[in-house]
Each structure stands twice: as structure tokens, then as C-alpha cells.
Design brief:
The complex is a heterodimer of chains A (187) and B (174). Chain A has 7 helices and 6 strands; from the N terminus they run H-H-H-H-H-H-H-E-E-E-E-E-E. By secondary structure, chain A is α+β, with helices and mostly antiparallel strands. In chain A, a hairpin with a 3-residue loop joins strand 1 and strand 2. Classes of the chains: A alpha+beta (187), B mainly alpha (174).
């Protein structure tokens, strides 16, 4: 006897086969005990999954207000970025003197490169606070002093960095399962 | 949504109304995929921002809900792809209710963790297809629309998802 494959039985359990395939499979199942057991096992999977449908009892009104405010903020931020960076097609310079602009840009690039390549005195480098991740956690350095926020010896840590210079570390303690989120903001 | 954008308060009002109308449905949809309240909140915001920034792509206002669902699904799948860290259950805090004993809460929490462990074995698209089909009970056609793929591909994702989950359940039983 030729049995349907696992995928067909898995789909049959959820009623996801087309009419003809369903009819063929049903016919086979009527006389095959082992395939019926397979379908029953897939059915058990389907019965257990709705346990994931539950949504916690949340303060929906507060959540809606927060989401609205953050969406507004996100849209405003997007607008700012767009207005600072106008599309090149609208610029008259592009139509006028492309070569001149390209040459000027190249010159600025070379000069900037030369200026940046100049070695700075150590004091100048230390002017602003510096945030960095180390094997132990997040470290903040400013004015020759260092402050460290350790990750409690956890090896698997996700670091995130944003444009404002803040750094975050997220990790799950393998022993306790506790989740820690550290964020260091630099101003 | 399908109207021309007007600056000022009216636009703001319309955006607020759009978020109010859809936020709970989109939140729940994303929550089912990521199984975490904080991530679901972030991703819901992200989905709304994407939708409102590209609202000119929506030609038919009647299909706003469907279009938004697709954006939400893609946002959640992208998140699952780039996030290798484990999701974790928040049942102890969020599900606590006066009608349940601590034992019941614990049992429910354990069962949920058991299911979440199984979900982690699936690829993001298999996971999304399985949840939409077997948890939300959507027909395969709608799952295909949300995942922007063919019905045959969705069937393949569903079959793979059920097979992997079944193996996981059998292994845990032993």
C-alpha cells in the first residue's frame, strides 16, 4: 500500500488539502491504521496551539495613548530627516554645473581627509564622554575616569547603540531566567 | 486613509483615528507572532509609522485593514529574523487575575513556555503561517495574502510547521 507523505497528512489534519487530495487521503485513511495515527498526532499539535492565542489583560487605553504618541513622534522624526535631506533631483546645482559640484566635493573630501588624519593631542580626544562595550559590560569614560556597568558574567549579550550616543545591553541570566536591560545615556 | 494628505490638525486627527481603529487588532496580531508584550508594542508602533509614511501606496481605502495587516506581519517577521534572542513569557505579571489560584497561573505559564519553546524551532515564515492558520484560524488564502506568497507556499510552511512541532512534542513526551 502506498502511504501519503507526512506533509499531506499534516495538511489533512487541518483541512488544508484541495478537494481531490482530501478525497484520496480520506479513502486511504479509512483502511490504514498507521496513517490515522499520524493524522491524530498532527491533530494533537493543532489542538495545543490555541494556547498561544491568549493575550494578557492589558491597560488598552494607556497602551493606545502611548502608541499614538510614539507614532506621532516617529512620523515627525521622519519628516525632519526628509526636510533636512531634500531630493537631489530638485537641486538646481545638479542641472547647472555637475562637474563643478563633483570637483568641489572631491576637493572637500580630500581636505577633510587630510584634516582628520592629523594626529590629535590626547587631551583633545578625551574631551567628550565615550561609551563602549567591553567583555564585561558597558563602560563610560570621561575626563580620564571610567565607570563600568557589568553584565553579571553573562556571555550572550545583545548590545544596541543609537545616534544620540546611548548604549543598551540586554541579556537573559541563564541560571535564573531573569531578563536585564541596561541603557546608558550620554549627554 | 485613502484621501489626499492635508497638513495640520486634520491630518493629525485622521492619523489618530486610523491608529485607534486598528491598533488593538494589529497589536494582538503581532503579539501572537512574537509572544511578548514589550516587543509587540514596539512593533505595532513601527508598523503604524511605516503605514502612515507610505499611505500613498494604498489605492483602495476599503483594503486599509488588509494592507496594514500585511505590513504588521512583515514587520514582525523581520523582527523574528534579526532577533536571535529568546522571547520570554510575561504570564506571571500580565495574566494574573483574581479568579485564578497561583497553581493555575503557574500551570498555564508552564504550558505557554512549552509552546513557545516549540515555536522557536520554526523559521519566522513557518511560525507566522502556523500561527495565522492554527491559532488565529485564518483561511490559507488570507495567510497567503498576509505573507505575500502563493497558497502552495503557505501550505508548505504550514505542513513544515506542524511536522516540526509534532516532533518537538514527541521529544518532550519522552
Amino acid at each position: 500500500m502506498r502511504h501519503p507523505n507526512q506533509a499531506t497528512l499534516a495538511l489533512h489534519a487541518g483541512g488544508d488539502l484541495g478537494p481531490f487530495a482530501r478525497w484520496l487521503t480520506s479513502r486511504h485513511l479509512a483502511r490504514c491504521e498507521s496513517c490515522r495515527e499520524e493524522v491524530a498526532a498532527f491533530d494533537e499539535v493543532r489542538q495545543s496551539l490555541p494556547g498561544l492565542a491568549e493575550v494578557p489583560d492589558l491597560p488598552w487605553n494607556r497602551l493606545a495613548a502611548e502608541i499614538k504618541a510614539n507614532v506621532r513622534l516617529g512620523l515627525a522624526a521622519g519628516e525632519c530627516v526628509r526636510s533636512v535631506d531634500p531630493p537631489l533631483r530638485q537641486s538646481g546645482l545638479i542641472h547647472g554645473g555637475r562637474a563643478a559640484v563633483a570637483f568641489a566635493c572631491a576637493a572637500v573630501l580630500v581636505v577633510t581627509g587630510m584634516v582628520l588624519e592629523r594626529p590629535l593631542p590626547p587631551a583633545a580626544r578625551e574631551e567628550g564622554p565615550l561609551v563602549q562595550n567591553t567583555p564585561y559590560g558597558i563602560e563610560v569614560r570621561a575626563g580620564g575616569q571610567t565607570l563600568g556597568l557589568t553584565n553579571n558574567g553573562v556571555q550572550r549579550v545583545t548590545y544596541s547603540l543609537d545616534a544620540q550616543g546611548s548604549m543598551g545591553a540586554r541579556y537573559v541570566d541563564p541560571e535564573t531566567g531573569a531578563v536585564t536591560i541596561n541603557t546608558v545615556y550620554v549627554q | 486613509m485613502s484621501d489626499v494628505i492635508e497638513p495640520g490638525l486634520e491630518l493629525l486627527e485622521r492619523q489618530n483615528r486610523f491608529v485607534s481603529e486598528h491598533f488593538r487588532r494589529i497589536f494582538v496580531q503581532i503579539y501572537h507572532l512574537v509572544q511578548n508584550v514589550a516587543d509587540a508594542q514596539d512593533l505595532t508602533q513601527e508598523a503604524f509609522i511605516k503605514a502612515l509614511q507610505h499611505q500613498e501606496q494604498l489605492k483602495d481605502g476599503q483594503k486599509a485593514a488588509q494592507w496594514l495587516s500585511r505590513i504588521a506581519t512583515n514587520t514582525a517577521i523581520d523582527f523574528l529574523r534579526r532577533s536571535s534572542r529568546a522571547t520570554f513569557s510575561e504570564l506571571e505579571d500580565a495574566f494574573e487575575s483574581g479568579s485564578e489560584t497561583p497553581e493555575q497561573i503557574l500551570l498555564r505559564s508552564e504550558h505557554r513556555e512549552y509552546l513557545e519553546d516549540g515555536l522557536r524551532l520554526l523559521s519566522p515564515r513557518e511560525r507566522a503561517a502556523l500561527i495565522m492558520r492554527d491559532v488565529e484560524g485564518l483561511p490559507a488564502e488570507e495567510v497567503a495574502q498576509r505573507l505575500n506568497c502563493s497558497k502552495a507556499t503557505v501550505r508548505s510552511h504550514i505542513a513544515n510547521g506542524r511536522t516540526k512541532f509534532r516532533r518537538y512534542m514527541e521529544k518532550r513526551k519522552r
